[in-house]
Structure formats: structure tokens, C-alpha cells
């Protein structure tokens, strides 16, 4: 992938196993973000090949994936409530002719329980900005994952700065990985958790690409 200011990522030769939590290890930045959005079918690579669950074009990949935790794509306005966010997502998912009323406790449970697990669900009338880092990301995952596609891409484990909350987040992703393939990313590896794979990714950082170009120029 290239942008107006030069290479964004690549070339990358990457094979991600099916099922479980798969962690891409690479620096944070536009290259990593673009790579994750490409894997989720939200961006088309400019060259090369990409196959996700048998699909090799962005439209088909899009229908097989969910994407959460990418600020450029799923940023949540801070001054809205949990109820409003769930209501909006349910209306987005519903057929055009269906009337979807404001979310209640049953809607909260149906939307969030599988992602939050034993972790307490956020109050319906709580503002998004008042939630903890962990709850904000779990809610973004729950909103993205309402249709439970085979692939779930979660943008950034480093978004959660507390080690305890990060461990809780990874635990929830591992649980989701029993039924989906989870792809996420972090600068450092993940220790103390039974993730499916940890994959170092080269050529996903602008500084690294610049050095590569110097070596090949």
C-alpha cells in the first residue's frame, strides 16, 4: 500500500491461522492501521493478493469480518450514552422496514454479554466518556460484532494501558476466539495467555520502510 507521502506498508507475506487470537507484532502507526483495515476488507491493497476465508475481493471480505478499535473508522462520540450507541447499532443492523425502539436491558445483554462475559455490563445511561478504557474498547467490540462474522479484527491492544485490564481484554478475546478468528496488534508480544499465534510483521512502519528504501536505492 502506498499513499500520497510514499509507502504505507509492504511488501508483507503473512499467513494467519484460522481460529483463536492471532497477534500481529509491529509498531503502532498508519502502516499497522492500514494493514488491519486491509485484512478486514475496509481497504484494498494496491498490489499483491489477499484471501480471507476464501474471499479475495474487498466486498466479500467485508461481509466476513468485523472491525473494532480503529479510531479512523469507529470512533465513538464521547457525549453519547451506552443506550444511544446500542440503539443506533440495532437500527443499523435491522431491515429498513423494522421499527427498533430504544435499547433496554434485554438489548444491552444481547449486544454486550458475549463480549463482556463475567465483566459487569456498562449502565445504559452512562456516557461513553465516563467508561473505563477497558469498557470503552469492549463496547466498541460488541457494537462491531453484533453479526458474529468469522473474522474479528481489533485494532490495538495497547489502547488499554492498565496491565490488569489488558489481561482481562485478552481473556475476553480468547473466549471470542473459540468461535471466531481474532486478529489484533500490539507493539510488544503477549505473555501469560494462550493465544493462537504471535506474528512479527516487517514493513508495516514508515521508519522501517524508509530504511529499507535506503538499502535498496
Search tags:
single chain, 217 residues, alpha/beta, Rossmann fold, five-stranded parallel β-sheet, 8 helices, 7 strands, ATP binding
Fill in the CATH topology.
Rossmann fold
Query: Which structural class matches the secondary elements?
Result: alpha/beta
| Alpha-carbon Rg, integer | 18 Å
Unreliable stretches covering 5 or more consecutive residues = none
Distance between the termini: 19 Å
Please summarize the sheet with the most strands. 5 strands, parallel
Polypeptide structure, described:
- This protein has 217 residues and is of the alpha/beta class.
- The chain has a single domain (2-216), classed as Rossmann fold (3-Layer(aba) Sandwich).
- Helices cover 37% and strands 13% of the residues.
- The protein is built from eight helices and seven strands; from the N terminus they run βββααβααααβαββα.
- The chain has helices at residues 30-39, 58-63, 71-74, 82-93, 105-116, 133-144, 163-176, 206-216, and strands spanning 2-3, 6-7, 20-25, 65-68, 151-154, 181-186, 197-200.
- Strands 4-5-6-3-7 form a five-stranded parallel β-sheet. It has a two-stranded antiparallel ribbon with strand order 1-2.
- A hairpin with a 2-residue loop joins strand 1 (2-3) and strand 2.
- Helix 5 crosses helix 6.
- The radius of gyration is 18 Å and the shape is globular.
- Keywords: ATP-binding, Nucleotide-binding.
- It comes from Mycolicibacterium pallens.
- This is ATP-binding cassette domain-containing protein.
